[in-house]
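In keeping with the milestone schedule agreed at the kick-off meeting, the structural modelling team has produced records for the first pair of proteins. Each record is given below as a sequence line and a structure-token line. The laboratory manager (R.T.) confirmed that both were archived under the project's standard naming scheme.
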Amino acid sequence: MQQPDRTERVIDPDMLAAIHKQKALQEADGGVPPTLVENRRQQDRLVPHWNEGAPDVAVIRDTAIPGPHGDMVARIYRSAEASQDAVILFLHGGGWARGSIATGEWACRAFATESRLTVVSLAYSLAPERQFPAAIDDIRAAMDWCAAHAGELGADGRRIIITGTSAGANLSLAAALARRESGEFAPIGLGLLFGVYGDNLETDSYRAYGLGQYGLSTARMKQYFEWYVPAGFDPKHPLISPLHANLTGLPVTFMGIAEFDVLRDDSLLLTGRLAGAGVPTEVRYYGGLAHGYPLYARTVPAARDALSDAAEFFRRTANAA
């Protein structure tokens, strides 16, 4: 396990410049929108800036996947050198309420080219229109679809590595737990990147970065939980806050942790829980990076390096499993 460097307290200058650029783009677009719907629309307008120069991929195409709440859009990425070993199922971040296939574009292109695996990026159900457990049900349906469409994917769709960022990491872990409990076929690996794994908004990292100076704030996370968790439902449910789950039997797991992130301590706590449950875990602590670093890979070399770390893990996992 890579131990956090507790002496480093200076954010990567490229990371900081990217955060400032995003804020400038928002201001030029009229400022922070007052509603969730308008916020989603603004995100769709701004993300093309960050996707410029993303790695070239031989095949990129959209498809429809039937799900429990209707057809879902998915985007398939496949490099010219793609193997048939496994599929990466990617889940974007956005607090269970925002984000899209477009916000994960750079990461998916990087994973497809560097891991040489087929990537399926899923547009799962968003809250508050569809609250817990709708997105988890979507992901389970997408895994079954991958298993049934090996020919279309050009890969073994029963050998799936689930990965995601932020809320997408939460959903990756929750889907693996749900499938374990139901006896369905399981993923062969997990890639958990700066995820939310608990409902405690008073950890040291929340106290340090909760004002949102590096992006995600405590107030925003509180709102996300309110949107995602149905009224009267316990946010400590193990599929909402996996820190409260039985983690035994999970597959080999990659943990990507950003230092300047309110969710940093969630990842550190989960790392300890995984170790205690005997789950083989590879931990990378990215001193200097902030929450959401893959979005800024265009201008942050350290973020591109972090994506390469995950891609290399996916390649090794596909070869070993």
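The second protein of the pair:
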Amino acid sequence: MKLQGKSALITGAAQGIGLACAEIFAREGAAVMLADRDEARGREAAERIAKSGARAAFVACDVSKSAQVQAAVDAAVKAFGRLDILVANAGIVHAAEFLDLKEEDFTRVLDVNLKGVFLAGQAAARQMVKQGGGGAIINMSSVNAVMAIPNQVPYVVSKGAINQLTKVMSLSLAAHGIRVNGIGPGTILTELAKTAVLGNREAERKILSRTPLGRMGEPSEIASVAAFLASDEASYLTGQTIYPDGGRLALNYTVPVAD
């Protein structure tokens, strides 16, 4: 098990990619602290993972609030003795055309998606430096860090900034043995994507026409990348963002979609 003896904090872990990360980390031997604003789903997920024989717990956390982020780090240390891995995954979206976007909605998305990654990374890194032994931080980005969707202004901006935050964090923390990398998924079949896309043939065809592998990804496929980045197998990798996107970023035009 590649994460045996490690302790991980995962934000946005009540569902989707965050939950998939918690599940695979636990299977790989890590103790996992799930953090999310959704207390009911988060606690249920942690209890389910714990029943499998892994060490798992839940802490309520709004990543845009520094005190709650610090409390989540403290909870992980209290439960497991130390903190070795952070997956900064929590994120939200807000759809609006550029000319109609309200300031408060722009700020709200960046507070969670960007400031939340900064706060979690800083709090986790301080603990890692304090305890010694290095660590691994994984920031959840998106293909939309380098592409753009017209009506997802704050989301696109936040993900682009996460890529730069990942780079500067990796440089700042290298001397402490802390590696910092990002993951930029393409379209992944989370609960939100399933609701928005599956059953809407036009939306599905649009996505698949931009995806050379001809399918959308699964949360577990992103979690597998996170487990690799968190492990010693990625010991010489830092400051990078990896894009599990089915080939989307390499594609200039479109590909045929079967009826």
